[in-house]
Each structure stands twice: as C-alpha cells, then as structure tokens.
Design a protein that fits this description.
The chain is mainly α and 79 residues long. Helix content is 66%, strand content 0%. It has three helices and no strands.
C-alpha cells in the first residue's frame, strides 16, 4: 500500500470524512454555493476581479439567507 493510500485510509477510519469515507466541504457556505447555486468557476481573471466576484457571491448568499429568516419569522408571527 502506498503512503498516499495509507493517508486516505487513516482519514476514513478517523471519521473526519464522514461515515462512508466521502469528502465533505469544510464550509457549508461553499457547499451551498457549489450545489444549490450552481457556482463552479470564476468568470473573471485577476485577484481584484475574483475578490469582487467572491464579494458578490457572499452578498447574494447573505441576502437570500436573511430573506429566508424573515419569511420564517413572518410565518411564525401570523400563526
């Protein structure tokens, strides 16, 4: 067994990658951007432009999150 496969085997057994040994996203925000919003790659090149694009993605994520919380709060008040 190679050193690389031993490293992955150790991670699987320790439970850091989940019960079935699948890789997990370290931040839920990135997982939501990738899976729910369909973000796969940056459209622009250059550190300034990528920083701006990440800012827009973060802003959109926070606005959608706030809207969902507001909607839940309004539904709880109406009940």
């Amino acid at each position: 067994m190679s050193a690389k496969s031993k490293l992955y085997e150790g991670k699987r057994k320790s439970g850091s990658c989940g019960e079935f040994g699948t890789l997990t996203e370290p931040e839920s925000v990135f997982g939501q951007l990738k899976n729910n919003r369909g973000f796969r790659r940056f459209l622009l090149r250059g550190i300034e432009k990528v920083t701006l694009e990440v800012g827009w993605l973060s802003l959109a994520h926070n606005v959608l999150k706030q809207a969902a919380n507001d909607q839940k709060r309004r539904a709880a008040i109406l009940q």
